[in-house]
Amino acid sequence: MVISLFWIILSIIITLLVMITAYFLLYRRRINRVLREGGSPRPLAPPHRVLVLAALVLLAAAVVISYFVGYKTAYDQMENAGPAAWPETFYAEITGITGSPEAGTSVTVQGLAVNDARYRGAFSFAVYGETDLERQGQPLGFSDLEIGDLVAVTFQGEPTSGEPAVLAHVVRVQLLE
User: Fold this and answer.
1) What are phi and psi of 46, to 5 degrees?
2) Which terminus, N or C, of the chain has the lesser number of Cβ atoms within 10 Å?
3) Could you tell me whether strands 150-156 and 88-100 are parallel, antiparallel, or unpaired per DSSP bridges?
4) Dihedrals phi, psi of 144, to nearest 5 degrees
5) Backbone angles phi and psi of 105, in degrees to 5
6) 177 residues of the chain, pLDDT tens digit each
7) Strands (E), 58-162
8) Which pLDDT score is estimated for 2?
9) Residue 75 burial (CB < 10 Å; 0-12/13-18/19+)?
10) End-to-end CA distance of the chain
């Protein structure tokens, strides 16, 4: 895709340059003929207008091509990212809370039966400043979480194996009713 796009862009640029060069040669020939023979020349657009028009066409082509190249690149990156790049959410009950926001915190949860089989076990994760704690869209403090609370845990990456499995990057913890 990239190679063929390169050749398309190159051919557009070369074609535009050939057309501009041909126009300048034609314009010069007409002006020279009028100067030699006298009389008034047939109307022909001045070269500066042709250059401005060519620049606008080239700019428009560059914008359109850049849009499609960017779209294709982003789509390919998304397709090739794999499951680790997509955040996943599971439901759990808090079974343990250790630490404090100042000293570092760790939360242990037990996945609920409504989850996929992969998320029914025990998990542990750290809560940092970048982890969103919320209830019905409103921010919560870490002290609002208690053992026995039902939460939705959104994370990225793969959990480590072991008991409890460790979630490396928890994005959001939502307190459920």
Assistant:
1) -65, 150
2) C
3) antiparallel
4) -80, -15
5) -130, 150
6) 556 777 877 788 888 888 888 888 888 888 888 888 877 767 777 877 878 888 888 888 878 888 888 888 888 887 776 655 678 889 999 999 887 656 668 889 999 999 888 888 899 988 877 788 888 888 888 888 889 999 999 998 888 887 888 888 888 989 987
7) 88-100, 104-111, 122-127, 132-135, 138-139, 150-156
8) 55
9) exposed
10) 50
Question: From CA 127, how far away is CA 151, in angstroms rounded?
Answer: 14
The structure tokens listed for 49 are 């207008």
- Please give the Cα distance from 43 to 62 (Å, whole number): 31
SS3 content of the chain, % helix, strand, coil (to 5): 45, 30, 25
Handedness of CA 166, 94, 127, 101 (dihedral sign): negative
User: pTM of the prediction?
Assistant: 0.53
Is the separation of the CB atoms in 59 and 66 below 8 Å?
no
Q: How many CB atoms lie within 10 A of CB 28?
A: 11
**Which residues, listed in sequence order, are joined to residue 91 by a DSSP beta bridge?**
152
Residue with tokens 């300048």: 24
The pair phi, psi for residue 115, each rounded to 5°, is -75, 165
155: nearest Cα among 90, 93, 97:
90
Distances (CA, A) of 139 to 84, 132, 142, 174, 175: 26, 7, 10, 9, 10
